[in-house]
Amino acid sequence: GGYPITTRRADIRSRRADNHTLAAPSPLMPAAKVTARSVSTNWADAVSSISLISALVFGFSVSTFSERIGDTETFLDQIFCALMGVTIGCSAVATCTLSLQYYFIKRLLDVNPTAIPQFLASTSLARDLVGHKLTWLSLVMYIGALAVLAIDKLSGESAVVAGVTFLASAITIVFMGSFLARQNKAAEKASG
Description:
By secondary structure, the chain is mostly helical. It contains 6 helices and 2 strands; from the N terminus they run H-E-E-H-H-H-H-H. The two termini are 32 Å apart.
């Protein structure tokens, strides 16, 4: 599916003159130009997709937490509430941070696309540490809270299977996220 490569090359070549060339073309598409606008649009898309994940985790967390209000006060309920509090707080901050990043990147696209690399560099701490890390932390905490809830509400082997499955999912997310982050850093270093 999609357009043939030659069409994409022609589309990229026909972009407006204010889309200043930033880097050499990729070896996979030798005729393509990498422009400030295309790089900035890719950054905006990446930020918006993580913001969406964070917003979904926030919504699921608030919904799950509100369903549990008023239940009995066992030790597992207290652990569940603590995990949900961390989840809701982390995902709310991450959603706001990444939504604002997306807003300002899109705004700069219309006003001054060449200022976006400087904006991305100066806001990398907020985006990477606050936005990205809190999103993944909130997702892992949510899955951990679901494991605690399953262990608390189910009995026998069902509780063990559900708890282990949820915890294994959380651990897999942590390892996969770490692996992909390392691969991304290595690719960024190799490209320049």
